[in-house]
């Protein structure tokens, strides 16, 4: 599949079209709503299913195949927030608190972007490695720790108690807990043990993701309003930053031996910005940071960009680096 075919297939996929439908529903003031309880259930379902499938795959994946991608992921978790903080402070002239808060979001990972990338690459014929959900769990926490540590070093506003509380909430929060819990169950049960529940957790996954993205489209349309007071630099960074981070992720993924699909998904993970775990941690540790910036950028600009154009871009770069072979 060529680059343009990837873009076209991505833009006409049910997931992207459902997201656009959600945007339109809010902009046109439709009374379309999903029950809040359904949104919560879908979030848990997607995370747990991802973990379960990742754990099942991890059982029969040789350690020698995993350790290099795992180290590369940890490297991304440290490098991306440092790079983001430096650019936001030097070029964006943001305060220490806002720069650290935004860096925490861009260093961490959006599980929905990961799910969409993995699904779209598989549909495009570039099936990623099955153990990638384990890397999501690895990437979630380090970036937030690094960014909160930076804020504490520079201002002391993220006091020790606040940082500890934020980290405790992060590690025991429902997103990490559901993902890691599913991963451990998948490892313990193995492929044979998981087989009886695949009809519920694996087969309907794409349908559940499509419904979840419909709701996210409506949430995104509302978040865009929060960016009215943001500087032009933040608008630009919300697109160019992910392209930079995603390119580094694809390069790293290729260098450690991941396939075309695996490298593209790792790039999508590096390019994504968290809007579930990071906001909870930042709200506790950096209460002075402006949520209109970090939430508006991650959910209002970066998420739709990655969903529509970013993922095909990282796939095209990965395909190029692999010599055009899937």
TrEMBL record:
Transmembrane segments: 6-27, 64-88, 100-118, 130-151, 171-188, 200-221, 233-252, 264-286, 293-317
Keyword Glycoprotein part of the UniProt annotation: no
Keywords assigned by UniProt, alphabetized: Membrane, Transmembrane, Transmembrane helix
Domain of life: Bacteria
Signal peptide (from-to): none
Pfam families per record: Sbt_1 (PF05982)
Protein name, UniProt field: Sodium-dependent bicarbonate transport family permease
Organism for this UniProt entry: Armatimonas rosea
């Amino acid at each position: 599949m060529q680059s343009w075919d990837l873009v076209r297939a991505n833009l006409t996929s049910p997931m992207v079209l459902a997201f656009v439908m959600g945007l339109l529903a809010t902009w046109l003031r439709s009374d379309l709503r999903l029950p809040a309880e359904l949104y919560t259930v879908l979030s848990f379902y997607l995370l747990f299913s991802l973990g379960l499938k990742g754990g099942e795959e991890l059982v029969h994946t040789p350690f020698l195949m995993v350790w290099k991608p795992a180290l590369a992921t940890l490297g991304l978790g440290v490098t991306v927030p440092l790079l983001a903080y430096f650019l936001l402070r030097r070029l964006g002239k943001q305060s220490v608190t806002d720069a650290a808060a935004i860096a925490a979001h861009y260093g961490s990972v959006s599980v929905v972007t990961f799910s969409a990338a993995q699904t779209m690459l598989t549909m495009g014929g570039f099936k990623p490695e099955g153990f990638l959900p384990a890397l999501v769990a690895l990437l979630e926490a380090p970036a937030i720790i690094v960014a909160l540590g930076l804020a504490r070093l520079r201002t002391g506003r993220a006091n020790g108690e606040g940082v500890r509380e934020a980290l405790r909430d992060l590690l025991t929060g429902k997103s990490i807990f559901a993902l890691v819990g599913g991963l451990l169950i998948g490892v313990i049960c193995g492929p044979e043990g998981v087989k009886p529940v695949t009809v519920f957790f694996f087969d309907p996954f794409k349908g559940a993701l499509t419904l979840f993205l419909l709701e996210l489209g409506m949430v995104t349309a509302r978040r865009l309003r929060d960016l009215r007071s943001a500087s032009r630099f933040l608008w630009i960074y919300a697109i160019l930053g992910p392209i930079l981070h995603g390119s580094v992720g694809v390069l790293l993924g290729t260098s450690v031996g991941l396939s075309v699909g695996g490298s593209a998904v790792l790039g999508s993970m590096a390019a994504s910005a968290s809007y579930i775990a990071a906001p909870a941690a930042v709200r506790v540790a950096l209460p002075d940071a402006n949520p209109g910036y970090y939430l508006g950028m991650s959910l209002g600009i970066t998420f739709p960009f990655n969903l529509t154009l970013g993922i095909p871009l990282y796939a095209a770069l990965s395909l190029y680096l692999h010599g055009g072979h899937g």
